[in-house]
Amino acid sequence: MSADKEPLFSKKNIRLLTGPLGAENPITVQSLGICSALAVTVKVEPAIVMSLSVTIVLAFANVIISLLRKTIPDRIRIIVQLIVIAALVIIVDQILKAYAYDISKQLSVFVGLIITNCILMGRLEAFALGNKPWPSLLDGIGNGLGYGIILVLVSVVREIFGSGTITLPGIGELHVIPHGLYDFGYVNNGLMLLSPMALFVVGIIIWIQRSRNKELIK
Amino acid sequence: MKILENIIRNTKPKFEKGGKYEKWLPVYESFETFFFVPAHTTKQGSHVRDAIDLKRSMMMVIIALLPALLFGMWNVGSLYYMSIGETHSLLETFWFGFLKVLPLIIVSYGVGLGVEFIFVFLRGHEINEGFLVSGMLIPMIVPIDVPLWMLAVATAFAVLIGKEAFGGTGMNIVNPALLARAFLFFAYPAHMSGNKVWIHGISNGNQLVDGFSGETILGQKINGISHAYSGFVDNQLSTFDLLVGNYAGSVGETSVIAIAIGAIILLYTGIASFRIMFSVFAGGFLMASFLNAVAPAGNILMNTPALEHMLIGGFAFGAVFMATDPVTAAQTGKGKWVYGFLIGAFAIIIRCLNPAYPEGMMLAILFMNVFSPLIDHVVIQSNIKKRLRRAKVSQLNK
Fold this sequence. Notes:
The structure holds two protein chains of two kinds. Helix content of chain A is about 60%, strand content about 5%.
């Protein structure tokens, strides 16, 4: 096998992992998975849990589909991909319900909706069907983390300005904006709690990214 | 004037290429063209048929806004003294309102122009004067007691996201001034609605005269009082009083007479479109009449006479100064009729059928701003189709 000749962390493989964090980011560059970025980013905690779930599902789905890629008939590949994703999502959902019930309630349908998250189908179609398991795993983790970075970034901005706090898993709510500021008449921005503002924040991130990296401008 | 001209002409070389302050050329040019008609002319084929340029048409809008602004200042003072039970002379009343409105204007211009200047340096283009009008409109469509920092945040958001993200003056999709108001409305609802913000001092806990209430007329109607009043419940307003506009509301929106003077100036100078202005009122009037006809008994907003709907809230102000914004409105003749009509109709629908948003004018105009390119597209395509058909028919006849 040719994979034996290539070291596990060759330059090409590392790029699979780091590319999606920047210039090939699934949300800001590939425009995949924006809907859930709007829905679960009101607070930081659910955003982190959501990105971890997506990363895990994506990594496993990528590996499984990559292993099966030669046996899946071309005509029914979408349905096979869906079954794999759905099975993984149900497992993640059950684990969340068992061990993190509160967050699972906050995320409500959006864990289930990972099944329809465009990043998953997009990566399976574009990468896992044509590559070996190891690069597929890296690609899955990379894209999951790229998705997560944007999610956490958006949720930090929204929670600080919308609620004045940051909620981290295991630590709880931290008041970021000092109480003295509220005495001066500072008020939390209610628009930040509405999903349109997430779109604005994602838009601003895209704007900044493109003005720094001219290659992204078509 | 001569002295000013000399100063500007003499300092010009310093700002030109190779001069000491080369970087500041955009700033210099903006001041130069602000005071004097620029000397440079178009060299290639142009379509300009008029001596008026962007700056001068903007100034005309500012002049048209002045009656409503001056009245708004007096109104602020008048309502304040009414709320604490004092009477003062006309001049004192106006002066009080002037001092309260001035900070809003300064913050709006300061922040808006500040953001524009930053982008001028980033992009290296000339300063556009697009913010001259927006900066004046923003203080006129907010409650008098809106905290200044909120106004600053909203203005910065409107200029940054509403305008500069799309490429600056003339490229914006929605009206920046209304975007600033929408931002305030959704971000800080407690400071943009209710009965405490429309008259100076109530939100700071001023001692009020017994029985005084600082709601807008639309707020009164939502709370179940069918007749419009100003301050005290028995201080009922006649149709003429509604025209004059001495009641609670955003700074510049209350006086229909002052707005009408502005409308005449805009229409006479040809800056605003008669089609839009007229059809906004037509659309609002017809929709309100329709709702009157189908309204269940007891629904105060739906039973409000159509004419009264035109006079209260921000309807008149929006129709004259906001809907007619040449950048965000529909461009085609037929399109302008449709665009204006739908604004009026939607404003009344939102007002009557969704009491969560007491003033539908802002949302209606923003909504139609987004749709105006589509309206233009349909109008142009149908025109092309019609002409193509005519061309085919005439060929067949040959």
